[in-house]
């Protein structure tokens, strides 16, 4: 068959999920394949905006105590952050006189050899509380079990006990409701392709497989098709909607239907 393009832009005969990661397209003319033959889908290309947040309502606060024993709580916007982005947001918050008056008060730096993080304190007797349920510290390698860290007698640092986990999306799974026979670990699945993010945040991942892999169709008559993007854990990915409140970033998948000889 000819090349088919599915994307998440609004149009007639299409249903898009609130997260923007699932699209159901109803064909104006049903696809009717020879019932005596077997067919498969092959993904030719995919273009996906790398925008899946690693900071949301579950891990978007930083609670720190200044030398005057005042607790300050910073809240991050939902988004996709690298440690430099986190440092920038903290500097903007801490430079305010009410929040410490020092843009360099708290900074994070990675240990490239171990994937752990250092948190540097620019002044004495500054501490961070790692225990709040919504703390960003756990993602940075400082679990709640570390309690309150810092409160050093002079400027210095504390090293995390765990590796940082800023890259929550390791793979994006492209799934189609009409396929069968692929496996996700030991479980049967309807995965038709796997995309690995290899670009900076809010850049387009361009997936161009060198070898097309056929995924068997379950039906020879198709009235509609549903394409879903999930992460490596089979959880729906948020295409930059902030849990459905914003318009999703764009993605598209191109595929062909081929006969299995």
Q: What is the residue-averaged pLDDT?
A: 94
Low-pLDDT parts are none
Tell me the CATH architecture of the largest domain: Sandwich
Order of helices and strands: EEEEEEHEEEEEEEEEEEEE
Could you describe the largest sheet, including whether it forms a barrel? 5 strands, antiparallel
What helical percentage do the residues reach? under 10%
Structural class by sheet pairing and helices: mainly beta
Number of domains: 2
* Beta strands, count: 19
Given the C-alpha coordinates, what overall shape results?
Answer: elongated
The CATH first-level class of the largest domain comes to Mainly Beta
C-alpha-based Rg, rounded: 23 Å
- Assign the CATH topology of the largest domain: Jelly Rolls
Number of helices: 1
Note the gap between the termini.
15 Å
What proportion of the residues form beta strands (DSSP E)?
35-45%
Salient structural properties:
elongated; single chain; Jelly Rolls; 261 residues; five-stranded antiparallel beta sheet; 1 helix; 2 domains; mainly beta; 5% helix
Task: Describe the model.
The protein has 261 residues and is mainly beta. It folds into 2 domains: 140 residues, Jelly Rolls, CATH 2.60.120; 99 residues, no CATH class. It is 5% helix and 39% strand. Strands 1, 4, 16, 17 and 19 form a 5-stranded antiparallel β-sheet that branches. Strands 2-3-18-12-15 form a 5-stranded antiparallel β-sheet, with no helix packed on it. The chain is elongated. The model has no long low-confidence stretch (mean pLDDT 94).
